[in-house]
Amino acid sequence: MKMMSVIAVTPKEGATEEIANLIVNSRVDGVDGLDVYSIVHTREDQLLVVNQWASIDAFMDYVNGPHNMIELVEHLCERFDEENVCKAYSGTIMHQESK
Question: What one-character-per-residue DSSP string does 24-69 give?
């Protein structure tokens, strides 16, 4: 079953684009089990990374693996929500749009 994970970070001033670039570049060759991801810049100046995973096993492999996104960007963040790293939402995807 597909599942979603959401990670929220608050970038240091001027680091928003650098964080987004680090995430995109780290995933350029793909990540096992990651089907789709989006980076959203909110009005509250947070970045939300919304990931769609092939399964919860793929998500856990990523979280426990060497390419954990938080470790990649934490030095550029004022704050990151550690709890969000562990939150996963599993269930049917009701609506999805792609280009």
Answer: HHHTTT--TTEEEEEEEE-TTS-EEEEEEES-HHHHHHHHTSTT-H
The predicted model scores a pTM of 0.75
Tell me the three state secondary structure of residue 88: strand
87, HSE (Cβ side, Cα atoms, 13 Å): 9
User: What phi, psi does 3 have (nearest 5°)?
Assistant: -145, 160
What is the tens place of the pLDDT at every residue in 41-61?
A: 888 788 888 899 999 899 888
Q: Whole-angstrom Cα distance, residue 4 to residue 26?
A: 19
| CA nearest neighbour of 5 among 70, 85, 92 | 85
Determine the Cα–Cα distance for residues 93 and 78; give it in Å rounded to an integer.
32
